[in-house]
Amino acid sequence: MNSHNYCIIMAGGIGSRFWPASTEKKPKQFLEILPGHKTMLRVTYERFMDIVPAENILVVTQERYADMVMESIPELPTKNLLLEPYGRNTAPCMAYATYKLLKRDPEAVMIMTPADHIIADTEVFNATVKQALDYARGHEALITLGILPDHPDTHFGYIQATGGAIDMDKAEPLKVKTFTEKPSEELAEVFIQSGEFLWNSGIFIWRADVIKPEMEKLMPVITNLFVGWEGAIDTIMERDFLQKAYAESLKTSIDYAVMEKTGKAWVIPAKFEWHDVGTWSSLYAYTDKKDAKGNAVIADKCLIGESDEDFIYSTEKGKLIVVKGLKDYLVINTDKVLMICPRDEENTKGVITQIALPGYEEFR
Amino acid sequence: MNSHNYCIIMAGGIGSRFWPASTEKKPKQFLEILPGHKTMLRVTYERFMDIVPAENILVVTQERYADMVMESIPELPTKNLLLEPYGRNTAPCMAYATYKLLKRDPEAVMIMTPADHIIADTEVFNATVKQALDYARGHEALITLGILPDHPDTHFGYIQATGGAIDMDKAEPLKVKTFTEKPSEELAEVFIQSGEFLWNSGIFIWRADVIKPEMEKLMPVITNLFVGWEGAIDTIMERDFLQKAYAESLKTSIDYAVMEKTGKAWVIPAKFEWHDVGTWSSLYAYTDKKDAKGNAVIADKCLIGESDEDFIYSTEKGKLIVVKGLKDYLVINTDKVLMICPRDEENTKGVITQIALPGYEEFR
Prior knowledge:
The structure is a homodimer.
Chain A (H helix, E strand, L loop, with lengths): L4 E6 L29 H9 L8 E6 L3 H7 L8 E4 L5 H15 L4 E6 L2 E3 L2 H17 L3 E6 L10 E4 L12 E7 L4 H10 L2 E11 H11 L1 H4 L14 H11 L5 H6 L5 E6 L3 E3 L3 H7 L9 E3 L2 E5 L5 E4 L5 E5 L4 E5 L3 E6 L5 H8 L9
Parallel strand pairs in A: 1-2, 1-4, 2-3, 6-10, 12-14, 13-15, 14-16
Antiparallel strand pairs in A: 4-9, 5-11, 6-9, 7-8, 7-9, 8-10, 16-17
Helix pairs in contact in A: 3-6
């Protein structure tokens, strides 16, 4: 494995679409909801151990989640835990990680990945990422892995490649023509028909010394906050510096701030099975632990009858969940909240806002 | 109030159709589920305080529920708490209460009542019970209060009176022709059309010295167990005696053992509004604490949206219940069990038996 290859796992999100299982105190990436009682963060970490040296895997998260990261990855060296004072979306996070990495290794090639993806075909995934790392090393390319859409999903960003319909068998890096955030279903349908579009996986690969000037050109409002901080990196001054920078930073995504505007965006068509486990609905679609009637159950004790395609999730120890005659529902039960709603609810926490009366702030 | 009038409240049932809120450890009559956070037992007790002297109200229950009775009715004299070693349905309970009362007062006229009825028209109720007490005092009559059916309910017993269609305005005591336990819907429909039938309320009124020989004639297998125990009543020997008698007793109801067979059954047509709160469904029908969409909520904190006619009941302190897009469901949540099922489920505990795998005995 090339010692200049790095993986940065972004694990600072609060997973509000997974409420009430995921809360600001313990977001979804730290929940043991995957087979083998593993956290999403742990599974992500193990995935990249095949691709980059273990000592080159870094995790960026919010300060308050530091302990939970170390619970998931006890072997993570402290210096590889990058702590943001608070969440400001992916653009400031990218700037922080890039500056830090560049100081440690000017030849760094970086993978930036979310912590909530499920990827089934490990070999194809590994080969694709390695191809991207190699391409990025030799080119001034900001690469995204693009997933072949199999339905007109309206929750993903779409990337249009140059050169007409994409040849998935070749799977060669393609220059990006356009980025489109979450289109309407009609538009998504047109995209798919054209054969020129891929889903934006949110997994980025690039050289640190290529993304740095591009960030400074396209999002100076954020990178200016980091001016003069090279001296503070990896010293006791780092924390104070970040506090100030983050306090003044915008909340914005790297997609919006850089990828949609840069002339250096590339996409590599990827053929592995990929799930963005961003919602209960997507976790349900992914999980293979369903009974004959399509019910997925993650609970100590559950009895379910005359019910189809429900997703039951309970973290209360020893509690018996009994469900009868329910179809296509989510039942999420924690010590503090019980939520019952249709399974396709996209934003479970948002439900509170839809129906709450004053006095429910504490649960938001 | 006549000092020879007594009321015996039967509060020994385990309320399995109200599971999981009602458990063998704390059956429904001890739950504070009625308006004003009163228990069903308390409401029953207060109802009869208008009719018989307070010191003439007795409660029969199982030994293990003694503390819960005293919590509901702290003013109950200890000697008025009749403790059965365990539940054996109403026939042994009647024998126990009758023998005890006769020893204390040979002229006793008794009301025997369940603890889980809701009665709306207090004045009509009081007048009807007083009429029954007066009639019982002067006649060898075993009287049941009969409710005018307003729909062909299949969960009640039906009583046919002699003399053809019943004149509700007269509301005079009528000799009983037949008792029919829980008929089919077709049969119930025929009963109602005939105008000769009333629902069996399970509230009985009779003289102690009239029911005694009738029990001894019609259910000697049970009354024989009490032979020789007059000397033990209200002494320290009582408990040991009951232990032996109950250990050998059949489990059977007074309806089956006496009322269906006696030639002395009478019914008084009653015009008060009456609910047998035997199931969640019936409690839902009764409760007036519904929102505009017909949802009834008994819970610390609950948000409910896009939902109709649900019954939400939670005893977990401080827990937020969020329900969206659910119609006609029961959501019952306790520390140990969460149950979600259609609201018309007649026997919630039975659901476990329908869908349980081995290992769920503890929750039955």
